[in-house]
Amino acid sequence: MTATATMPRWLVPYGWRYFRAKQRLLWRDAPVHALRTGLLRLLHFAALQGAWPLDNIFWPQWPAAAPSQIIFILGHQRSGTTLLHRLLAADPRARALTLQEMLFPALSQQCCLRVAGWLDERLLHGAMARRLRSIQDRALADMDPIHRIRLHEIEEDEFVLWAIFASAMCANDTPAAAASEELAELRSLALQDPAWQERTLRYYRACLLKKVNATSRVDVASTIWIVAKDPAFTKRIPQLARVFPEARFIYLHRDPLRAIPSRLRLVEAIWRQRFGPQVRMEAAQTQALLRDSLDTYLSAARDLPLVPPTKRYDMQYETFTADPLAEIAAVYAHFGLGEVPGEMENALRELHSARSTTPRGKRPAPPDFGLKDEDILGPLRGSLG
């Protein structure tokens, strides 16, 4: 039975056990927050599950959408994966999920959003769109120096699994849950049921194919591929290769002494943005996230060599950031994608312009989180090459 044949067409998988465990944790510390977030999660799932089956009625052809390749960008967080993702997505032939498409992936939901946008433009001259952008800018601007996030912009694909409570982000996005043993399965695939892992990846595949189905009619004569970025997928390489036989992998490697503290700073910044500037990462939370980070590096060292050389491309962070377009040209040649389009250079110019106007703080280091270099390098010795 193929991955396409076994994609969920009527029922959306959901990590109810993890959802209940997190709600219990939140209820002990912040009942009001637990009630609010729990209700929002339930409403979101109800909307998703209600819309998902409609796609089989109004768009029955969606499982047949066939990208030529699916390029997965892997690597530890804070290793240049976001820059590479946004550059590759600038190719008109590429498809990548925006955050709102991950949260509302059903074709029926996207159709409703497009109709709402059309009505807003025709009747209100875009007032609602401007209001939404203003709300996002006020709520999320503090995160821009570390990682810009907006609903209408492409984002890391882990949000697809976050939306169905099948991601480690569901634990890591809240201080009360970050070191919880009840949610340890979300971080460690070795503790998860393999059937559950595959079921959630098939759902993710369905989300990607629905994106291709919705956009391929625009230029049906062109070859279309998908660009997906998710550092957490570095721990899922064998599963991805099985569910996505057309998969290609780009692995970005960065010195863990740089990447891991930067990730810890990102998580702490997310907590402060959500729960206030007084939040500080505690030792138990640091250790839980450190184990997760080390597992990412170890998984890459173990599993990437099993991928045929024609299906993977290894990239160093320093080489990529020094000359992004040269490295992308090498990727295109390696995977047979043709010429690098001019849109890529324009996208790089825009990204560099935005980066130059965004203030940056001090580069984080292991001691900032009570760690020594050996805490990071020791477990990785012999696996980094």
Rg, Cα atoms, Å = 21 Å
The backbone outline, from C-alpha atoms, is globular
Largest β-sheet summary: 5 strands, parallel
Topology order in helix (H) and strand (E) letters: HHHEHEHHHHHHHEHEHHEHHHH
Flag low-confidence runs: none
**Structural class of the secondary structure composition?**
alpha/beta
Tell how many strands the DSSP assignment holds. Answer: 5
Q: How many domains comprise the coordinates?
A: 1
- CATH class value: Alpha Beta
CATH superfamily: P-loop containing nucleotide triphosphate hydrolases
Helical element count? 18
Helix content: 40-55%
Our measurement of the CA-to-CA distance between the termini, rounded to an integer number of angstroms, reads 38 Å
